[in-house]
Design goal:
The protein is of the alpha/beta class. It is 36% helix and 15% strand. It has a 7-stranded mixed beta sheet, with helices on both faces. Strands 10-9-11 form a 3-stranded antiparallel beta sheet, with no helix packed on it. A two-stranded antiparallel sheet has the order 6-7. Strand 2 (213-216) and strand 3 form a beta hairpin. Helix 1 packs parallel to helix 5 and helix 5 packs across helix 8. The radius of gyration is 21 Å and the shape is globular.
Length: 433
């Protein structure tokens, strides 16, 4: 009964994400141990530029998610049992995701941040995870149980637990359905130590698409989306497979196209052709400043990576996608890779793709998590449904006005993000058409 009460409260009390004058970026934590340190990501919650609110706090206030964060902290303090906590965390994670996707698809009024701004979801999730880490419940909670709650928050607030297609929508090969199913993914903001204000347009694109139904050339498509973290350990713990594999298996959740996406290069939509098996980026860490372990001369494979070849290839209709008008940007079918040729020890750039027997140093999408999500996606395709159209899109880099070094947004930044999202939508339509 107590668990059901918490579930009901969590579902009905979550406010819509609208602009607010509240200054808080953290939950109301009357049951927390402030001495418990946060992860590197969580420590950034206090980062600011100049005086006033921290940047994350301002983003939360202007996107309306500060209310949801505060509510979560309040509800945590009232949780009577581990079972109720499990319900609360999952429900509030899914409410956060649904609030973010609803917000992304409905116009916002100033001073609220625009609907396409993805940063509120990111900082709300980080705030809620930090609240769970510092939470002092009225019952015993082991380290393993706390970690499971944080994992549940991660999965539920990223769309992973709610990426089921509508009831009655059938996938490829099922008779009697006029609706095709599409899964699109994006990523959290990253390089936050360089600029705490940054967002990720691939995440904005995912939020704008979740639950949408499109008509393309007389066919109806339902789109579900997921946003992945920029963290190596989550990939090592098979988050990508947990999210994508159900959509490759036969049954109601089988998709008809799976496209992963991330932020890539300035001014270009890259259609990445060859995905490499290994990690090789040593110049930047992940969002917790952890290194993937590889270099271009000595690339490494994730310890959790399923068996597979060094290279995999996109099966998306890249020619049609590359013909999309994405002004002011351009599209490119990218076949360039960095390989260590068979029998050699130093990497060589191959503009037209890998040679037989080579080791993958960088796929067309590089040697970071963008390339890895593309490889893990197309590996699941090859293992479970080789006929599935699947591959990776790199969207252009999101940029502020060069004159803006402190404000959390500006007209150039907003127009840039809107144009990237519009271009990504157009490319997806051409892929479906």
């Amino acid at each position: 009964m107590a668990g059901a009460l918490v579930l009901s409260t969590a579902l009905t009390a979550a406010p819509p994400a609208t602009a607010t004058a509240s200054a808080t970026a953290r939950p109301v934590k009357t049951c927390s141990d402030e001495a418990v340190g946060g992860t590197v990501e969580e420590q950034r919650l206090d980062n600011g530029i100049g005086g006033g609110l921290s940047v994350p706090a301002e983003i939360l206030a202007r996107s309306g998610f500060d209310k949801q964060v505060a509510l979560f902290g309040h509800l945590l303090c009232a949780v009577p049992s581990r079972a109720a906590a499990s319900i609360l965390v999952r429900v509030q994670g899914e409410v956060l995701w649904k609030t973010a996707t609803y917000r992304a698809q409905h116009p916002q009024t100033a001073p609220a941040l625009p609907s396409t701004d993805d940063r509120g979801l990111y900082w709300a999730r980080i705030s809620m995870a930090h609240a769970l880490r510092q939470w002092e419940p009225r019952f015993s909670l082991s380290t393993v149980e706390r970690a499971a709650l944080i994992r549940s928050l991660e999965y539920s607030s990223r769309g992973i637990t709610s990426s089921r297609f509508s009831s009655g929508v059938q996938g490829s090969g099922v008779q009697g359905s006029g609706v095709q199913k599409v899964l699109v993914t994006g990523f959290d903001p990253f390089t936050l130590d360089a600029d705490i204000r940054i967002g990720n347009p691939s995440g904005a694109n995912a939020l704008s698409l979740d639950g949408q139904r499109w008509k393309v050339n007389g066919k109806t498509y339902e789109i579900q989306t997921v946003v992945f973290p920029v963290r190596y350990p989550d990939f090592d713990e098979n988050m990508v497979e947990d999210a994508l594999t159900p959509h490759y298996r036969p049954g109601a959740q089988h998709a008809d196209l799976v496209m992963t996406a991330s932020q890539g290069r300035v001014g270009i939509f890259d259609l990445e052709v060859f995905n490499g098996r290994r990690r090789s980026v040593s110049s930047i860490g992940d969002n917790n400043n952890l290194w993937g372990g590889g270099t271009v001369n000595a690339p490494v494979v994730s310890p959790s990576m399923p068996a597979g070849p060094e290279w995999l290839t996109t099966s998306l209709p890249t020619t049609a996608m590359a013909a999309t008008d994405v002004a002011p940007f351009r599209t490119r079918i990218n076949t360039s890779v960095l390989e260590i040729p068979a029998g050699e020890t130093l990497p060589v750039r191959r503009p037209l793709g890998p040679t037989p027997g080579s080791i993958a140093s960088e796929g067309a999408g590089g040697g970071y998590l963008s390339n890895e999500v593309a490889y893990r996606n197309t590996l699941q395709r090859d293992l479970l449904d080789p006929t599935m159209p699947a591959g990776h899109l790199h969207v252009p880099v999101l940029q502020f006005d060069p004159a803006n070094t402190t404000a959390i947004t500006d007209p150039t930044y907003e127009a840039n993000r809107d144009a990237i999202v519009a271009g990504a939508h157009a490319i997806l339509r051409n892929a479906l058409g």
